[in-house]
Design a protein that fits this description.
mainly alpha
Length: about 60
């Protein structure tokens, strides 16, 4: 099974979602802002990882 690499966006996304959950008592605006930022960072990280995977597969096809 392949090991999955985590990027800085993945770490930042997880941390901001956890912060959003922890800060529920301090205000909804702050909580939802952190959660929204976490979701946005995870989407950006997914797109970035998908592009890198496509580049690697294209390089393999060219080399072979």
């Amino acid at each position: 099974m392949k090991t999955q690499e985590f990027s800085y966006f993945t770490d930042l996304a997880g941390a901001s979602v956890v912060l959003g959950i922890v800060l529920v008592g301090s205000g909804r605006l702050i909580c939802y802002s952190f959660m929204g930022a976490g979701i946005l960072f995870s989407i950006i990280g997914g797109i970035k990882m998908r592009k890198q995977a496509r580049r690697k597969s294209l390089v393999r096809r060219i080399v072979l």
